[in-house]
Design brief:
The complex is a heterodimer of chains A (355) and B (262). Chain A has 355 residues and is of the alpha/beta class. Chain A contains twelve helices and 15 strands. In chain A, β2, α2 and β3 form a beta-alpha-beta unit. The longest helix of chain B has 19 residues. The chains are: A alpha/beta (355), B alpha/beta (262).
Chain lengths: 355, 262
């Protein structure tokens, strides 16, 4: 496949088709509607299922129903829609069904605006619905990574029978960048044994998240927790740059992570010993690696397009070993390289870190 | 006169336990209509020979455990979302026969949007809608279908429609949607009504199997426990009061559905 100029939203939608998406249900919301629009044509062209639902509540429950049939299915949305989906996400988690959701975050709370944001971090990693569960949350930082995330998302969802969220933001969805799409992949031929397909020649399959006996539900929860522990052990992903001799550490994901790559370059040009840790999974969070780095560096600067959400996970990992500072913009504002750089320089001089 | 003795295998079968009904004891209260309608659904599934093709969508309500009683594949929906889930299932499994079984809180309150849009899209699904004018599972609160003046645990002085809104006639509303091909209201309150209800349920399944569109059967029912009546009194009360406000009628039937083999 050739490298092409692709818009984030179209890129992830087309990537999903090529990674074998069999059904899509969604409701329009900026800044991800181009994905739904793209799929409205492409899925039908491929003889697959596309349906525009009456709401995100309906969309996620359509996704849930289709996923119970053992097909590869997804939806995409942005904050207000994600809020509406949380009921369904909890049922999906409770019944251990593979589902992929893309959240192109926008400014909030409330109707907020349609500019990019990273303020759904808590919502995606910790409060995606009632009860004890975490989705896997992937955090791509470029259109290419967004494309690759779709393949990974389906693979992880099916491997662990779990919910996978691809966390983008308005700028990632809207930006055009050169990237390469995967070749068209064959659709899975068989349905998994647990799927509802009609009880032909077997006992009926029942997919439920209800266990009325406390002892039973506790067992289900223990199994879920064991699975999450496996995921924590095997699926942490991150990118590290110039951490070898770093005395200061930037931590940022997605669009903020990209901005910090520029900050890093300039800081290094100025001779500051800085490194960058960019989580590619927000859950599971690269806690272990961050703790190790906290033994090495003298200070950490977290950069987010929120009032400080991932910050809490960073602080939890660092456990007070070194100072953790925060630079965040909200409301759809994007951190500026100069601002992060001066924040970093202030941290350096406070800690006596010199070029 | 000598009477010949008929061998068992030559006897005409007058009664059998439906194959699509499990042997589990139900958790329903004595005299609850849910059990009757479960049996009708099971008989219809047997008669149409679709047990191995059917996928049920269970509601949140007293019938939440329907998958323990009807012997087909099942999923358990969130409260009111069964039609959306059924849509997802039917769209990816068009050869399966997909049905929802929902109460009046599930279908007429929290899930109003989902049922109306599923009907309007003409989803090839079948909906069995139990109208017992109350929230059974949560202990007898007002449902959207509760009649004016009816005492419930959340209308202790009787439903005052000025305050609490009016009982909603869902079948009449669903019949307005272009995608619905068969919308009817029956009453499982006596033998004749139960037989008629069964015929309607069968027709609603057949409509789906012939790919015609959305079909629903509302069934006037009782909740003796939360109405504070014995089962017999509840049946009589329902016939006099529920059926007066909710007329038994077929609100929509297309020619194609009419032409289906009965
Ligand atoms: C989102 C949500 N809200 C509320 C409930 C609580 N709840 C469970 S069943 C029910 C009403 C059931 O009434 P109905 O649908 O009429 O069924 P019935 O029990 O009468 O058969 C309610 C409010 C719930 N489970 N989920
Ligand atoms: S509470 Fe009412 S609807 Fe529920 S099982 Fe008892 S009688 Fe039936």
């Amino acid at each position: 496949m050739a490298v092409q100029l692709l818009k984030g939203n179209v890129a992830f939608a087309e990537a999903a088709v090529r990674y074998g998406l069999q059904a899509y249900f969604g409701y329009p919301i900026t800044p991800q509607s181009e994905a739904l629009e793209h799929l409205s044509g492409r899925m039908l062209q491929e003889g697959r299922v596309f349906l525009q639902a009456e709401s995100e509540v309906a969309a996620i429950n359509m996704v849930y129903g289709a996923a119970c049939c053992g097909v590869r299915v997804m939806t995409s949305t942005s904050g207000p829609g994600f809020s509406l989906m949380t009921e369904g996400l909890s049922y999906i988690a409770g019944s251990e069904i593979p589902v992929v959701v893309v959240d192109m975050m926008r400014g909030g709370p409330g109707l907020g605006n349609i500019q990019p944001s990273q303020a759904d971090y808590f919502l995606m990693t910790k409060t995606a619905g009632h009860g004890d569960f975490h989705p896997i949350v992937l955090a791509p930082a470029s259109v290419q990574e967004l494309i690759d995330s779709m393949g990974l998302a389906f693979a992880l969802a099916e491997k662990y029978r779990t919910l996978v969220i691809v966390a983008g933001d308005g700028s990632l969805g809207q930006m055009m960048e050169s990237a390469e799409l995967p070749p068209m992949q064959p659709l899975p031929e068989q349905r998994p044994v647990w799927a509802v397909t009609g009880a032909k020649g077997r006992e009926p399959n029942v997919i439920t998240s209800m266990y009325l006996v406390a002892e039973h539900l506790e067992q289900v929860n223990l199994r879920l927790q064991a699975k999450l522990a496996e995921i924590r052990k095997h699926e942490v992903r991150f990118v590290e740059s110039q951490t070898g001799d770093a005395e200061l550490l930037l931590v940022a994901y997605g669009t903020s992570g990209r901005i910090c790559t520029s900050v890093l370059r300039q800081a290094r040009q100025n001779g500051l010993p800085v490194g960058l840790l960019r989580p590619q999974t927000l859950w599971p969070f690269p806690e272990q690696r961050l703790r190790e780095l906290a033994e090495q560096v003298r200070g950490v600067l977290v950069v987010e397009m929120s009032a400080g959400q991932m910050l809490e996970d960073v602080e939890h990992a660092v456990q007070g070993r070194v100072p953790v500072r925060f630079h965040g913009r909200t409301g759809g504002m994007i951190p500026m390289v100069e601002d992060v750089l001066s924040e970093l320089q202030a941290l350096a001089s406070d800690l006596g870190v010199t070029p | 006169m000598s009477q010949s003795i008929i061998a068992p295998e030559e006897m005409e079968l007058a009664y059998a336990y439906p194959a699509s009904l499990t042997r589990a004891y139900t958790h329903y209260c004595p005299g609850c209509v849910h059990g009757i309608v479960h049996r009708l659904v099971a008989e219809v599934i047997d008669e149409l020979g679709i047990r191995e093709r059917a996928i049920g969508v269970a509601p949140v309500g007293c019938a939440v455990l329907i998958y323990n009683y009807i012997n087909t594949d099942f999923v358990e929906a969130a409260h009111g979302r069964a039609p959306a889930m059924a849509t997802g299932i039917k769209r990816v499994n068009p050869d399966n026969v997909v049905f929802t079984y929902q109460g009046d809180g599930d279908l007429a309150a929290i899930g109003t949007a989902e049922i109306i849009h599923a009907a309007n899209r003409g989803e090839r699904i079948t909906t069995v809608f139990i109208n017992n004018a109350i929230y059974g599972m949560t202990g007898g609160q007002m449902a959207p279908t509760t009649l004016q003046g009816m005492v419930t645990t959340s209308t202790p002085m009787g439903r005052n429609c000025q305050l609490a809104g009016y009982p909603i006639r869902m079948s009449e509303i669903l019949a307005q949607t272009a995608g619905a091909v068969y919308v009817t209201r029956e009453a499982a309150l006596d033998l004749a009504g139960i037989r008629k209800t069964k015929r309607a349920i069968k027709r609603a399944f057949l409509a789906q199997m012939h790919g015609l569109g959305f079909a629903s059967v509302e069934v006037l029912s009782t909740c003796p426990t939360n109405w504070g009546m014995d089962p017999w009194a509840a049946m009589q009360w329902a016939k006099e009061n529920l059926a007066a406000y909710y007329p038994l009628d077929t609100f929509k039937i297309t020619d194609a559905v009419k032409a289906l083999p009965a």
